[in-house]
């Protein structure tokens, strides 16, 4: 599949994609850190939202600003910026996330030399009417700040168009997830990863075209051998280690669904196409299944992971958490307890900058899979 | 303490702050009250250290502070054991040790006072960190009690009118929550009185801290860490005002009589971040050995740092601006302005930063602050890496070497 090949390339080197997009007259590239960024507004301003994932490589420059006890996303992201690898960025957006990202925003604003900087100080509480109104205010302010900075008016019709595009993209990604759940061998975990990652850095129209092709290529019906595979749900924050998938696949299991920021939390829940578009956007961010750095129903995530595991007939859940990520680490015992109570086995993989050595990881996963 | 016969060193006796005894009495009575709340029928609320306590006081609720409890756990060197209890149940060792030790204590009723009284409800304000949100969610599930979350948007470059309105609305929502939890209406007259007492206490606390602008300083930041407990826990009550009035008088008297805390004070240092609770004595002796006095710190002053933003005649209204504006809820550049003023005002020779593994919002950014201080003020900065409660993260020999080397630099600079 040519489309898939292209997306793999984008996921492997998103910087090259962004550079090319920019030099071919695209416009401004806007870096961002978290899926609570209203990327529709950025797109409506004619810019390319570009999710920053962190380098995973050696830290040389970031260590002068950040202690060793900050997560690899924060350190890796800063390393990328300070080393000049993100020099194509015209702006960066920091939606309020966790304590570490909050400080990263300051450090970034003072040191990263990206021309424009936006702090989108979202409400942390997402279950009250006043927080909902504040969310709308924050988005409206972001819209006008963007307009001011880019000199481009963002009219409501443009935002509505981006909302429709987002919904299309969400449906396609959901379709791919459904196809994989029905037949885990129809697409590799690594390819799903590439799809999600490229959706977060690519021009939306272009991505939709390619992803549609990929979806159309996923035939119906189960592949031979799929029945004997163990079905796994991945849970956690961001997984930027595609190797996990291939190692897992070698251990006799296959990811059938996830509960990741770089996964279902990103594409589940459509945005209303009626009414004021900024209000619809805000409403969708209020309703979505919360990320652990936000506050809503304190039982929602536990119920959700059990629901996913049941619905997807999972044999087990793998928590993949970044070391030093406080919000996820706080939720983990409760999430695990919820799964235990439902009789669903799970293990925890704590990831630093780099994955543990392949052999070690394979042994751990094989041991886990063999108990399922 | 053992009953051994001690020879009293009159020099040392003279330096001791006499109000300490009264402070201990007040805190003991407070904890007895809290532990007996079940009998007295008063409600107990757990609340975060930066949270709006005044409405609780006005509603006659007993506020209990897991963070203050955490400090006691740390000071009694029970941190590692209780943290390990939490870790056994799946909490990562990288999480804040106030949270871990509290979770450990509530699982086992452990710690210096046999655990905190169970809460009737929880009040969590994220003006100090996002950690408290997660921690209070854990406890809300454990105790199965209501949680009120007071959301104070972070201030990077400015505090928007939208944010102010959002927080203002939450003040009313908070009072509504309390009325429901307590089954009675707020007495706004009482609330006004509590607000005035809170402001009064904050002013006194500021004055107490500022006595150390005098050289030699009548107390050190290590003393301030101890006297801090009241402004955190019972702000808005008469007893706090009375206590700080007394303490202030004592400190002024010390100045008048030339009594300094550090004998022969030669160097004046500022401390940044939380105390290292299990090592305050050791650190204090260590610095005193070098004739260095920690004259101020960014932590204790956080409880009087937003006085300018509070209107004592319109307390509830001004809460919406004051609570989000505290030291740790603002950007590094804003922190630098405050830090700079402090360094200048106290005529500091150096800055000691505790890079605290537990507290990311306080610690991340310190490297940048360090550079700004050195560049703009030419003041040397020492960073020591530790943890406020978990003594497993303290390397005594390493820190000792670093402090000695830092003091050498200061001495040579003279
Ligand atoms: S939420 Fe976790 S992974 Fe994401 S930036 Fe914060 S600490 Fe890092
Ligand atoms: S020490 Fe830091 S992270 Fe822990 S509760 Fe206090 S402010 Fe939050």
Summarize this structure as a short list of keywords or feature phrases:
heterodimer, A: 372 residues, alpha/beta, four-stranded parallel sheet, 8 strands, globular, B: 414 residues, Rossmann fold, 18 helices, 10% strand, binds iron/sulfur cluster
Protein chains sharing the most extensive interface: A-B, 51 and 48 residues
Distance between the termini of chain A: 34 Å
Small-molecule binders here are:
iron/sulfur cluster
DSSP helix fraction of chain A: 40-55%
- Using the coordinates shown, work out and report the CATH topology of chain B: Rossmann fold
Largest sheet of chain A: 4 strands, parallel
- The proportion of residues in beta strands of chain B is 5-15%
Beta-sheet strand percentage of chain A? 5-15%
CATH class of chain B: Alpha Beta
Tally the helices of chain A.
15
Morphology call of chain A: globular
Cα radius of gyration of chain B in angstroms: 21 Å
Q: What is the β-strand count of chain A?
A: 8
The whole-number mean of residue pLDDT values of chain B reads 96
Question: What is the chain-wise order of helices and strands of chain A?
Answer: HHEHEHEHEHHHHEHEHHHEHEH
| Number of helices in the DSSP assignment of chain B | 18
| Classification by helices and strands of chain A | alpha/beta
Fraction of residues of chain B in helices?
A: 40-55%
């Amino acid at each position: 599949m040519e489309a898939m090949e292209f997306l793999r390339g984008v996921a492997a080197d998103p910087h090259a994609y962004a550079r090319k997009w920019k030099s071919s007259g695209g416009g401004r590239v806007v870096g961002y850190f978290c899926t609570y960024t209203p990327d529709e507004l950025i797109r409506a301003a004619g810019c390319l939202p570009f999710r920053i994932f962190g380098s995973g490589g050696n830290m040389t420059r970031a260590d002068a600003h950040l202690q060793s006890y900050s997560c690899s996303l924060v350190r890796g992201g800063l390393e990328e910026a300070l080393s000049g690898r993100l020099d194509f960025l015209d702006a960066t957006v920091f939606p309020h996330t966790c304590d570490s990202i909050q400080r990263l925003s300051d450090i970034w604003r003072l040191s990263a030399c990206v021309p424009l900087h936006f702090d989108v100080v979202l409400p942390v509480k997402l279950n009250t009417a006043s927080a909902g109104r504040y969310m709308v205010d924050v988005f409206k302010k972001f819209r006008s700040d963007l307009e001011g900075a880019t000199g481009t008016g963002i009219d409501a019709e443009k935002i509505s168009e981006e909302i429709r595009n987002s919904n299309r993209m969400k449906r396609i990604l959901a379709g791919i997830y459904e196809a994989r759940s029905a037949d885990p061998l129809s697409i590799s975990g690594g390819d799903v990863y590439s799809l999600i990652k490229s959706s977060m850095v690519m021009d939306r129209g272009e991505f939709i075209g390619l992803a549609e092709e990929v979806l159309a290529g996923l035939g119906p019906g189960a592949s031979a051998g799929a029945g004997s595979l163990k079905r796994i749900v991945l849970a956690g924050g961001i997984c930027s280690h595609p190797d996990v998938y291939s190692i897992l696949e070698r251990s006799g299991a296959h990811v059938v669904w996830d509960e990741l920021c770089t996964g279902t939390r990103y594409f589940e829940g459509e945005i209303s196409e009626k009414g004021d578009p900024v209000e619809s956007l805000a409403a969708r961010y209020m309703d979505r299944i919360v990320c652990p750095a936000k506050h809503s129903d304190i039982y929602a995530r536990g119920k959700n992971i059990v629901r996913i595991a049941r619905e997807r007939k999972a044999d087990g859940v793998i928590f993949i958490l970044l070391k030093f990520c406080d919000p996820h680490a706080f939720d983990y015992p409760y999430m695990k307890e919820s799964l235990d109570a439902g009789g669903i086995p799970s293990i925890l993989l704590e990831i630093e900058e780099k994955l543990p050595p392949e052999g070690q990881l394979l042994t751990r996963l094989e041991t886990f899979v063999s108990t399922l | 303490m053992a009953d051994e016969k001690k020879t009293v060193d009159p020099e040392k006796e003279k330096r001791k702050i006499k109000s300490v005894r009264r402070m201990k009495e007040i805190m003991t009575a407070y904890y007895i009250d809290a532990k007996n709340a079940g009998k007295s029928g008063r409600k107990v609320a757990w609340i975060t250290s930066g949270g709006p306590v005044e409405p609780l006081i006005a509603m006659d609720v007993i506020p209990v502070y897991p963070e203050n409890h955490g400090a006691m756990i740390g000071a009694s060197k029970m941190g590692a054991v209780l943290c390990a209890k939490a870790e056994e149940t799946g909490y990562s060792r990288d999480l804040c040790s106030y949270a871990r030790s509290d979770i450990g204590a509530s699982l086992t009723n452990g710690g210096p006072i046999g655990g905190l009284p169970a809460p009737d409800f929880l009040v969590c304000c994220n003006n100090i960190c996002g950690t408290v949100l997660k921690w209070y969610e854990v406890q809300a599930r454990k105790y199965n009690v209501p949680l009120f979350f007071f959301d104070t948007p972070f201030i990077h470059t400015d505090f928007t009118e939208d944010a102010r309105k959002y927080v203002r609305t939450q003040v009313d929502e908070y009072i509504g929550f309390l009325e429901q939890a307590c089954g009675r209406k707020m007495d706004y007259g009482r609330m006004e009185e509590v607000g005035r007492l809170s402001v009064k206490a904050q002013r006194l606390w500021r004055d107490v801290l500022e006595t150390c602008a005098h050289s030699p300083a009548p107390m050190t930041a290590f003393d301030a860490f101890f006297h801090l407990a009241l402004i955190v826990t019972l702000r808005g009550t008469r007893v706090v005002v009375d206590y700080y009035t007394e303490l202030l008088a004592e400190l002024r008297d010390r100045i008048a009589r030339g009594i300094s805390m550090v004998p022969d004070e030669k160097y004046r240092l500022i401390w940044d971040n939380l105390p290292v609770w299990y090592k305050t004595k050791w650190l204090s002796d260590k610095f005193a050995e070098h004739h260095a006095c920690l004259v101020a710190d960014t932590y204790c002053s956080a409880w009087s740092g937003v006085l300018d933003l509070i209107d004592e005649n319109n307390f509830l209204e001004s809460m919406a601006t004051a609570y989000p504006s505290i030291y740790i809820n603002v950007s590094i550049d804003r922190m630098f302005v405050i830090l700079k003023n402090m360094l200048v005002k106290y005529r500091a020779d150096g800055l000691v930063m505790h890079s605290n593994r537990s507290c990311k919002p306080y610690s991340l950014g310190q490297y940048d602050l360090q550079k700004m201080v050195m560049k703009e003020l030419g003041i040397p900065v020492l960073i020591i890496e530790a943890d406020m409660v978990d003594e497993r993260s303290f390397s005594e020999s390493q820190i000792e070497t670093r402090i000695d080397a830092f003091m050498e630099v200061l001495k040579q600079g003279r």
